[in-house]
Amino acid sequence: MEGSRLLVSCPTAYGVGGLGQHLAKVREDAISDGFDVGVYCSGGIDTPHLVPSDWEARWFRWPPFRWRPSLRVWFRHVRFDREVARCLVPAQVVTAFMGGALHTFRRARAMGVGKLVLEMPNSHPDNVRTLHEAATRLHPLEKTWMGAAFARRAAAEFAMADEIRTNSDYTSESADAAGVDAAKIVRRHLGCDPRFAAIRRVSHPEGLRVVVFVGSLTVFKGIPLLVEAFRSVEGADLRLVLVGGWASRGMRVWLEQARGLDPRLNWTTGDPAPHLATASLMAHPSWEDGWGYSPTEALAAKVPVVVSDQTGMKELLGAGGGNVLPAGDVKAWADWLRAWATRTAP
Asked: May I ask the CATH architecture of the domain 5-187?
């Protein structure tokens, strides 16, 4: 592929968050394969193919966007997709992310691009919607970001793509179960930033056993479930630290009330590395996660990990599956955490 041009588009900042890290991996893999790579994204990289999106934050403060996450996600993907299609330049391969590829693919076909590649950062939309509905029945604090309009766009993209890149066995199996053409599916193997393997593990300075979660503080990441399960575990030396930010007033209020019931709960933002250095356990109870960078980073740092069975990186935990628990099962998580606390008690 020496000298061939590959363009990749993704409506996020390069290298930031799980989606941004996935975008960086796509670019790095393409460069390793000998492609000349161009990137369309919303920031984080010095590239002439940059699609700004700062103005969206202002728009999204107002109805109807403010109250409907699915509308915000759909609008962002459509707006980004149309802009990329407008400024697309000739290439041999165009890669775009699920939900934001339809217009780009149509324009690429009209330009004679030889290969269209669709990246699946999440499991199939049907699976996401089913799991999110279950999450909101259990904890009706937020609305899903996966709406019907996004799912319809994704279905059209699946049909147009020449190749569909999945990032875990979990996402591959969800696509197969939904009837996506298996001949199109190719695995992409993700990892994490090497800096996490270099973390020097130390004892907590106060002698505490800390359970850490890293990621968005949402219903769909399993935050209420984790907090409720942790609350059932006795131990004055135990703490639950949530590293991330909330996206809704409902989650903020719920967490503040939860901390009133159990002061061992706390949250913060910023680099997770210092928290992993002293963590006793990383818990990742997501209702749906195509891969799961944060538990992968914890594994690299040699922190014990427990994840839900709807997390793609569960395949890294081996065939035993003792640290893989049912998504949405508060009792299973509470029982596991109590057993862990007993085993690790001073």
From this structure: 3-Layer(aba) Sandwich (3.40)
